[in-house]
């Protein structure tokens, strides 16, 4: 039976198991909106394509299944690029459908015309344009396969509006049949033999494909072999941070002593991570051009192995498959018990709150959240100086409790929190945001209210782009330019959207504010009035300025 292209597309999404899509509507894909109506797939209508893209990315990060996004041509696609960049750098599966001009008008610089293959090519795993309605099932099936295979990532399909509205009689295509990856005996032996020769091993876990089961198995492997486990930037949910063998995160604002251990290790077992510049402090802790520790690299994409580091060996396999095999082995503790215990002791010392100035103290806010939030609470954030407090002082208890961009994108936390609340309406969702970070996507408050997302936003308001100001004071002390911010009354703004909020100006008022926020049935903003001098480094802005003057 003939269907228009929009219905063919929606039926194919249903077959792929898509639970919801995110969009900002456009006239270029009206047929797709009509198809979604018939297929009964919820459409989360957003206020800006950047926020919609981040919601879709967060869905992919949470579920392991591609987040699906619809945006219109030209400006809509351009606005969405920020979320696609997050998906690419974070190895998150995502499928993006972009409305396109009619096929007969191409190559004339028609209204909002863009060549999406060239525009998105360097940013995504695959970008294509569907010219024939009959081939929609084929393209969509392939898009979902590419988005989830190897190193996951975003895929873009451009949909000419006349192709999408045309009818065709074409069968659907079933989703791909997959066989779970398993580590071979030779691959497992390669790792155990490397460990047998080591004296100072360090496991570094990160990347995609993880799950609660994999996180538990990583802890089991660490116990059985008595090895210390570090995680990469914003992958702290890969292992319970309270575990005796967890030793911290290799990311922005990392514990310097953990960075030193990465340099001192004689074996680095990299599980799923690309071991990039953030984890190695700009390739200074490990340098691909100089001799260093032996690196055994496990990564799902064979093209990643050997691209930066010389692996010894490189194993093309999703990290959780290897972790499952290692956790099943009999215990084999090596001669590095003191090395592991010392690394954990350094982590405990690092996460002991260091006092900052002001009546409201971010280190105490994060410590309270770590102690009092339910273990399954989902905590999101974007980028800013405030995030370093979260990374340092919050103990993530399980996989799926952290949603944050390894790409360092500002504005991510609030859209991600909305997506998380829609996926897990029974779990508390808390977004940490700076005043600059929150203002990038706070218009999605309307989306949260419309679709019933219950999100608590804690806004760290210091009246400035704090991270940039910190670097500015160190490099150009006393010469403030472009880093001050004017801010709204955030609780009043939340109420204008239909939510609620409260301002906290004294630390003693924070617990009661959070109790009220967690009990709310609508989005709730807790605005923290912070001392502008406070920095996550433990230094004040004045001290940072003095360090710059003394360089």
Structure write-up:
This protein is 39% helix and 16% strand. The protein is built from 21 helices and 20 strands. The radius of gyration is 24 Å and the shape is globular. It folds into three domains: 3-168, Thiamin diphosphate (ThDP)-binding fold, Pyr/PP domains (Rossmann fold), CATH 3.40.50.970; 185-350, Rossmann fold; 362-549, Thiamin diphosphate (ThDP)-binding fold, Pyr/PP domains (Rossmann fold, 3-Layer(aba) Sandwich), CATH 3.40.50.970. The chain is α/β, with parallel strands linked by helices and 551 residues long. The strands form four sheets. The chain has a six-stranded parallel β-sheet, with helices on both faces. α1 (5-15) packs parallel to α6 (136-148), α9 (212-225) crosses α11 (319-327) and α18 (466-475) runs parallel beside α21 (541-549). Pfam families: TPP_enzyme_C, TPP_enzyme_M, TPP_enzyme_N. Belongs to the TPP enzyme family. Keywords: Thiamine pyrophosphate, Transferase. This is Acetolactate synthase-1/2/3 large subunit.
